Give the backbone structure.
Amino acid sequence: MVCGSVPCLWTIFCLHLCFYVNTGIAQNTREVILLDSKAQQTELEWISSPPSGWEEISGLDENYTPIRTYQVCQVMEPNQNNWLRTNWVEKGDAQRIFVELKFTLRDCNSLPGVVGSCKETFNLYYQETDVEVGRNIRESQYVKIDTIAADESFTQGDLGERKMKLNTELRIIGPLSRRGFYLAFQDLGACIALVSVKVYYKKCWSIIENLATFPDTVTGSEFSSLVEVEGTCVNDAEEEADNSPKMHCSAEGEWLVPIGKCICKAGFHQKGDACEPCGRGFYKSSSQDLQCSRCPAHSYNDREGSWRCDCEDGYYRALSDPPSVACTRPPSAPQNMLYNINHTTVSLEWTPPADTGGRNDVTYRIICRRCTWEPEECFPCGSNVGYLPQQSGLMDTYVTITDLLAHANYTFEVEAVNGVSDLSRTQRLFAAVSIATSQAGKRVCTSVAIRLQI
């Protein structure tokens, strides 16, 4: 080490300083470290030009861990030009690089006999390259970042009192376009100890927001940059209609301005940052629903992740019924059938069924059959028979049947139907009456038959 007429006091101060410097500051979770001189315990082996300028020395941190630092104190001779260059730093995807310097600097006024030749600043440079270059430092190829000055400088008195005058300066480089770069420090005649150099870039780390995963994203090249990132829905989730999930990565590595979201698919509900299946006995019919619901009446499921529940035996769900509606069954037969004959016209009346099957869409339909006298055999009535107001879809509990044949036997079945009647394959419930028409128009009163056909 060459220190001119400033002897080992400088070195001693550096060693004590390195002992007391706090290196326990937690790394910012948004930082990706490219270079940290304090993290390297072996020699840094940076390039010093001329070799008699900057010198690498060892020190100890507060945990007695060895650290490597650089210092220079060529203050006795004018026209100094001492360069120190780091090893090549590969930048990865970064466009905007942060350089954090921690250093001490001696007050020129505290150094006797160096008036006019001593400096209290040094210069910071960088050079972009795609590959490592040789060990020669070509000053013209470097771009100046800034002149670095100390906020606090130490004096001879500080050495005795062990007062720490550590300076921290942060500079930003960018936008960078090549694979890597070098940093260089130019001393023009100062007494400096470069305690640490940390180089990093910032990124927004992967997160899950609104059920969408946003990957690690490197910040933009400008201070005001916002990088738009499209999210990917987590498992068993889908994008909300016309509302794709997006977020913006700020230059400081913070996620901002969330837009859109994902929602759990049918059969799944949100729990934290994930979609979990509905349990047995529950369902979720649509991604628009927030929570799973218990199976409605007369329905069940015995599996997880269901979007609907199955109907119990004998119960059904119409195609137009949403999954939230209880399963229902066909109605019972109409009650209290009455009829009146007027020549070839028959009027039928009845009252609604005792059981509507749990639905309110009950209508009625009429089945007409003409039967022979002996042996009794029945055939569907032809298209010449009229029904007033209509044969099926009756809302009222009466119908008039016209244009029947005189002196003929007929059987009329009146069936109550609802939205699930045609889904049942096991039964038909109806009220039936058999009559005989006469030319004389005589009213015939017979009993009303109610039959179950399976």
Observations:
- The first helix runs from residue 9 to 20.
- The domain at 334-444 is CATH 2.60.40.10 (Immunoglobulin-like).
- The radius of gyration is 47 Å.
- Helices lie at 9-20, 156-161.
